[in-house]
Amino acid sequence: MQIFILRHGVAESHEAHKADARRALTSKGKSEVRRVLSLARGANLTPDYVFSSPLLRARETAAVVKKLFGTKDFVETKSLLPAANPQAMWKELAALKDAKQVLLAGHEPHLSNLIRFLLGAAVVVDLRKGALVRIDCEGLLGPPRGVLKWMLTPLLVRGR
Predict the structure, then answer these.
(1) Counting runs of H as helices and runs of E as strands, what totals does the chain give?
(2) CB-neighbour burial class of residue 42 (10 A; exposed 0-12, middle 13-18, buried 19+)
(3) Are residues 130 and 7 in contact, defined by beta-carbon separation less than 8 angstroms?
(4) In this prediction, what percent of the chain has a pLDDT beyond 70?
(5) Element housing 108 (H / E)
(6) Tell me: the pLDDT tens digits for 65-107?
(7) Is the distance from CB of 145 to CB of 137 less than 8 angstroms?
């Protein structure tokens, strides 16, 4: 299974006087996510499923994925909340017997923890807003045995 991990794009600031769960993507956030995903399309990204945290900025990020790729299967899950345990998301992925590509839209610090868990390595990941990581996992039984294939960031996509 190819697992694509996408951190939500730039969202409204905490000073916007909204509850954290209701902070929306900014137009810059949506634009950067679109650019990263458009480049990833050239690397054969065509997700069978899109999973999202229930927080608004992650759902809006997932909506960009669904629109660009026409992905019909969408799952909102608490397993992608910022404080979630990576093993919970692994259990959900292991239940997908037919999926070849899955995209997960979520938050830090969970996504970096999930990347470490999938790789089985104590790596430090600087996962910027709008960044996309591809990890390939062979087999879904037992602990993950992932291989990091690549990472795209909005800064790289802009060519700076």
Answers:
(1) 5, 6
(2) exposed
(3) yes
(4) 98
(5) none
(6) 999 999 989 999 999 999 999 999 999 999 998 899 999 999 9
(7) yes
User: Closest Cα to residue 20, out of 75, 82, 71?
Assistant: 82
Paired tokens of 133? 């990581």
Asked if 98 contacts 48 with a C-beta cutoff of 8 angstroms, the reply is yes
In a domain, 143, yes or no: yes
17 assigned to some structural domain: no
In this predicted structure, what is the pLDDT of residue 6? Answer: 97
* Per-residue model confidence as pLDDT tens digits over 20-37: 788 888 999 999 999 999
How far, in Å, CA of 55 to CA of 78, rounded?
9
Assess if residue 79 is contained within a domain: yes
Q: Which CATH number is 78's domain given?
A: 3.40.50.1240
Residue 95 DSSP symbol? T
Q: What is the pTM of this model?
A: 0.94
| Domain of residue 111, residue span | 2-12+22-158
Beta-carbon-side half-sphere exposure of residue 35 (alpha carbons within 13 Å): 18
In a domain, 38, yes or no: yes
